[in-house]
Amino acid sequence: MDLVGNKNIRQAWxxxxxxxxxxxxxxxxxxVGNISxxxxxxxxxxxxRAANLFLSLGIEKGDRVATxxxxxxxxxxSWFGLAKIGAITVPIxxxxxxxxxxxxxxxxxxxxxxxxxxxxx
Length: 121
Description:
Strand order of the largest sheet: 1-2
Shape: flat
Number of strands: 4
Distance between the termini: 40 Å
Number of helices: 4
Largest sheet: 2 strands, antiparallel
Order of helices and strands: HEEHEHEH
Strand content: 15-25%
Radius of gyration: 15 Å
Structural class: alpha+beta
């Protein structure tokens, strides 16, 4: 699949990490003011870790996987991690209630996977 020139997401992130390694790629400030920064190399490493986790959990190319996260680096990491293995992210609004999530998952996801991300306050 050609997304950026002749590259797919995996190739694009690997190239960005190689070209810009220690430069800042993502800066995130949470609701209480804590700031997280990732370099291109660090962010690509986290994306690769997520991709490998998804593979180890049986997620395969073409699978649709629901994610329900607030705005956070983990959302981007999971999105790009799934894209690197050819899976499709089905983002669910963090404010959706259980029955709304169930409706979305039943109609849009080929595999069900629950991941909780706890953030310290």
